[in-house]
Amino acid sequence: MIQATWPRLPLLRALAAQMATGAVVFGSAFGLAAGVELRPPLMALLALQGIGAAVLGARFGLAQWWIPIQLVLPSALAVAWLWQVPEWIFLVLFMILVLVFWNSARGGVPLYLSNPQTRAALAALLPQEAGSGETATESKNKNKPGVRFADLGSGLGGPVLDLARRHPDGHFTGIESAPLPFALAWLRLRFAGLANVKLLFGDYRSHGLGEYDVVYAFLSPVPMPDLFDKAKHEMKSGSLLISNTFDVPGHPADETVDVADRRQTRLYLWRM
């Protein structure tokens, strides 16, 4: 039971890393103070706690974006207490974090953003029209529909906005359930003025996948088996499921694409 629920609770893993490291650091400090009367500065101990929590959190499987949070959290709390920061500031910061990392707390899906190199790789993988490898000009002359693409967990909307500019004959849908990223993506779309982009609020479970030729996801290992089953049941024959970084255990990808970026991104492709 613990193994089934533990990966879905990144906030508890972060807290456990802080508590375990704090116990070691301050326990050792109290031992030094009692034994040799050595009293390390408080901020040095808090810095050590942050470093230890960041390392331990990585061992617990926390995403990389947790590292700076774990590093600065103990020192930031101490500074806030010493400076008597008003309580409402903590509430505002907490609400911002909840709105941004909503999916991490609910379903083990952090906010991952697709970089420009990955977006370029996706553009190269898209057919110019639904079910065909024809060019956009040929597709337009035959009055055939453009490719229909969905980004599950679209974040700030980068992939759908970029691909919509590259493929003006296509139809691009972003699906996002974290409130603040969705709102920012909506604002970006309003300024971009792209008529071939649609943003939907919700997660992949609340939207059907049958209308799309290509479905792209940059989620986490947690939802991938469930998403793969949903895609197998709903996506039409000949369509394409693409996962950034995360594969599906027991279902080898039909193809992989290595992206020439700094994080060595790998795209996993399954043909339905």
Largest sheet, if any? 7 strands, mixed
Structural class: alpha/beta
Query: Which percent range describes the beta-strand content?
Result: 5-15%
- Please report the total strand number as a whole number: 7
Helical content band: 40-55%
Unreliable residue stretches: 1-8, 132-144
Please identify which CATH superfamily of the largest domain we are dealing with: Vaccinia Virus protein VP39
User: Overall mean pLDDT score?
Assistant: 80
Give the termini separation.
33 Å
- Name given to the CATH architecture of the largest domain: 3-Layer(aba) Sandwich
- Total count of helical runs of at least 4 residues: 11
Reading the helices and strands in chain order gives: HHHHHHHHEHEHEEHEEE
Taken together, the total number of domains comes to 2
Main sheet strand line-up: 3-2-1-4-5-7-6
CATH topology of the largest domain: Rossmann fold
Classified by CATH, the class of the largest domain is Alpha Beta
Tertiary shape = elongated
What is Rg? 23 Å
What does this structure look like?
With 272 residues, the chain is an alpha/beta fold. The chain is 50% helix and 13% strand. The chain has helices at residues 2-5, 10-35, 42-59, 66-82, 87-100, 102-107, 116-125, 136-141, 158-166, 179-192, 224-234, and strands at residues 148-152, 171-176, 197-201, 214-217, 240-244, 255-258, 266-271. The two termini are 33 Å apart.
Question: What secondary-structure arrangement, pairings included, does this model have?
Answer:
Layout: H1 2-5, H2 10-35, H3 42-59, H4 66-82, H5 87-100, H6 102-107, H7 116-125, H8 136-141, E1 148-152, H9 158-166, E2 171-176, H10 179-192, E3 197-201, E4 214-217, H11 224-234, E5 240-244, E6 255-258, E7 266-271
